[in-house]
Design brief:
The chain is of the alpha+beta class and 337 residues long. It folds into two domains: 8-196, Fructose-1,6-Bisphosphatase, subunit A, domain 1 (Fructose-1,6-Bisphosphatase, Chain A, domain 1, 2-Layer Sandwich), CATH 3.30.540; 207-336, D-Maltodextrin-Binding Protein, domain 2, CATH 3.40.190.80. Helix content is 30%, strand content 24%. It contains eight helices and 17 strands. The strands form four sheets. It has an eight-stranded mixed beta sheet, sandwiched between helices. The longest helix has 22 residues, at 26-47. The protein is globular and about 60 Å long. Bound molecules: 2,6-di-O-phosphono-beta-D-fructofuranose. The site of 2,6-di-O-phosphono-beta-D-fructofuranose (FDP) has 10 residues, from loops. Homotetramer. Pfam families: FBPase, FBPase_C. Its cofactor is Mg(2+).
Length: 337
């Protein structure tokens, strides 16, 4: 029996010390707040119909997506976990129209948090993987309320990013800019335990993930790349490919961290004006930081995702091509042609 378990909190405290960071405990506290939101969500997702959390809420978010009951519950759980303890100064959520400042009387902390509280929520009612994604930025000046511009920072300025996958087991995957580590929720003690230290995306792959039903709308570069994948070993890429589509970005990126692959939600005719389908602050930037920290690449096809300058709209969209380094480089060559 292993008695030397590393919990998420003890890992963060050790890492902060190792990196010589001034340890006021605020950052550790913030991650603890986020992990509590994730544990509460995991517990409800796990109970599913028994907890009465399936089905639609009958409302839409700022992007016009129909909200599920669990979208709203997960959003409330994140807000509640973040607004009381004085670690966070403000939040931006995929489920809220505007950024959220704290109620009067609450201590404004040193960090901003953006989150997608229930990624892949269309999977919720069919008992397939969903997740949460978050990104942490420095707040402008301690004690003040942030504005929307304070969230409009490029991904390279993220202090930390992570996700929680609610799958057969719940996993919290985190980067603070020093590699990527994965923790599995031990429900019997209510703690995330380090089980996947120093996760690395394999450099090469023969697996791609894309919603192929959108094929007729893609740009020529992506059309050609996927056609060449499908041509297999007799085509120009010279190998047979496998395809997966979980329809929850957290599930796709977790698979890529575990065994390699590429995930594409590219620009297409319908989303060109918006910049893509997925959200820059809640999905693109945090997942790009995780994938890059694990040795992979993350691009729009034309630019590194983490260097995209936000336009001030917290719901800005971005094209996403990320995963195994060599395969993303191959896809980028199609975009140069
Ligand atoms: P969802 O809208 O269900 O939250 O966040 C966007 C996202 O899921 C991603 O997680 C997922 O990869 C993608 O959309 C699924 O898109 P399709 O509906 O095109 O399959």
């Amino acid at each position: 029996m292993d008695t030397q378990l590393t919990t998420l909190s003890s890992f963060i405290i050790d890492e902060q010390r190792r990196l010589g960071k001034q340890a006021s405990g605020e950052f550790t506290g913030l991650l603890n707040d986020i992990s509590i939101a994730c544990k509460s969500i995991a517990s409800l997702v796990n109970k599913g119909a028994l907890a009465g959390v399936l089905g639609v809420a009958g409302s839409e978010n700022a992007m016009g997506d129909a909200q599920k009951k669990m979208d709203l519950i997960a959003n409330d759980l994140f807000i509640n976990a973040l607004q009381h303890n004085g670690h966070c100064a403000g939040m931006a959520s995929e489920e809220l129209d505007e950024i959220l400042t704290l109620p009067e009387g609450k201590i404004r902390g040193s960090y901003l948090v953006t989150f997608d509280p229930l990624d892949g929520s269309s999977n919720m009612d069919i008992n397939i993987d969903v997740g949460a994604i978050f990104s942490i930025l420095k707040a402008p000046a301690s004690g003040e309320d942030p504005t929307a511009e304070d969230f409009a920072r490029p991904g390279v300025e993220q202090i930390a990013a992570g996700y929680c996958l609610y799958g057969p087991s719940s996993m919290f995957v985190l980067t603070t800019g020093n590699g990527v580590n994965g923790f599995t929720l031990d429900t019997s003690i209510g703690e995330f335990i380090l089980t996947h230290p120093d996760m690395k995306v394999p450099e090469t792959t023969n697996e791609f993930a894309i919603n192929a039903s959108n094929q007729r709308h893609w740009e020529p570069a992506v059309q050609q790349y996927i056609a060449d994948c499908q041509a297999g070993e007799t085509g120009t890429l010279g190998k047979n490919y496998n395809m997966r589509w979980v329809a929850a970005m957290v599930g796709e990126i977790h698979r890529i961290l575990c065994r390699g692959g590429v995930f594409l939600y590219p620009i297409d005719e319908r989303n060109r004006e918006a910049g893509g389908k997925l959200r820059l602050l809640y999905e693109g930037n945090p997942m790009a930081m995780i994938v890059e920290q694990a040795g992979g690449l993350a691009s729009t096809g034309y630019q590194r995702i983490m260097e995209v300058m936000p336009n001030g709209d917290p719901h800005q969209r971005v094209a996403v091509i990320m995963g195994s380094k060599q395969e993303v480089e191959t896809i980028l060559k199609y975009h140069e042609a």
